[in-house]
Design a protein that fits this description.
489 residues, six-stranded parallel β-sheet, 18 helices, 17 strands, 48% helix, binds 6-O-phosphono-alpha-D-glucopyranose
Amino acid sequence: KQEGRPLRQRQRLLVVANRLPVSAVRRGEDSWSLDVSAGGLVSALLGVKEFEAKWIGWAGVNVPDEIGQKALTKALAEKRCIPVFLDEEIVHQYYNGYCNNILWPLFHYLGLPQEDRLATTRSFQSQFAAYKKANQMFADVVNEHYKEGDVVWCHDYHLMFLPKCLKDYNSKMKVGWFLHTPFPSSEIHRTLPSRSELLRSVLAADLVGFHTYDYARHFVSACTRILGLEGTPEGVEDQGRLTRVAAFPIGIDSERFIRALEVPQVQEHIRELKERFAGRKVMLGVDRLDMIKGIPQKILAFEKFLEENPSWRDKVVLLQIAVPTRTDVPEYQKLTSQVHEIVGRINGRFGTLTAVPIHHLDRSLDFHALCALYAVTDVALVTSLRDGMNLVSYEFVACQDAKKGVLILSEFAGAAQSLGAGAILVNPWNITEVANSIAQALNMASEEREKRHKHNFIHVTTHTAQEWAETFVSELNDTVVEAQIRTRE
Ligand code: G6P
């Protein structure tokens, strides 16, 4: 982990991500309402006073007409956001297709799509073409707004082609790229037909960052094994040019969560929840309804726990918040029905006239409701099959200083490397192990809960999102300076 270094005054940043931190709803021909989302990345960058950040990203809506585009561009400018307009066909091929049906499952070790290989090969090619085209469209917008001295920070698997497009425009542009998902073993990455082109495009960046040291190591070995380049402790070298590769584990704006617990509305909500679930232990899952989150496996483990521990049946409830996501992708539609089927079966099996063991909600909660829920939880279940970091585990810990509940955490989430000592680590594929951990968590003595919580709380409140952003950007500045020094030599 790098130490944060002092930044220059008000570093101008162009943050490029597939999604803007704002969702737009059209109200009329030339009017829009905007809802600013306060996700991890947004809070990270807003929390750093030294940054003057502008966001470039897809507005998340189809705006085919010029009047609508102009009005939205104007409205977004007030939020320091700049839209990239993608038409429906591109969104289908680039976002639903290449990003979410190919790269996302592959990077989470779920492999490439299996069905009808020929059709997949054909659609693979058109989806990759759309991916490159979309990345070029992002690059055009960045180039239009770039001023000398700006640092460009590209985010995530949607934009792996972007560093190359940007350097083709201007080789002096400082470009960083950060991956929010795992980077898989090189043996997985090498199955991707466009494996080399994507690696080379990412290597055009000056700094490439990952959540964990393992992901960085997988990336470097993919470059050495697939491209035949030289991996060094600093990164990857290609004909004398070094691309720095390092781990920058993200965090959350922990203060925001801790402060929220003081808000009267949240305290009232906490009281209501306590009353509603009096006499029962509360277990909580909060996930996007995504196959990588291991929701069916988690629910089956809960069923096994109920089966084997009859005395707990009317004393525990599992609240599963499953936030709908990427609903146009068929795999996600299948998952929704699968989860509903399992929840229905278990509630039918163990429910009574007055209570059911699982409350499953297909929706998101607002920030304050979520904080209240975290605060009343006895055991949080984060059992992703793979996850870049998983900040739900961090948010839970931040809200637990009063209760000191237990975190059950997948060993395949990046967070296992930072919260592993405080959590109960599990292999989410091993349903018996998860069921046993639920019993262990519910029966854990208060001294042990306190000790485990303390470890995690210190981590979550020290390694914050702000620290993460500062470290990445200052390292990016240094990297470019180093590159210039090397050229001068
Ligand atoms: C993951 C990705 C993000 C993405 C988010 C929500 O966390 O790493 O880049 O924004 O999922 O997914 P969505 O497809 O709705 O943007």
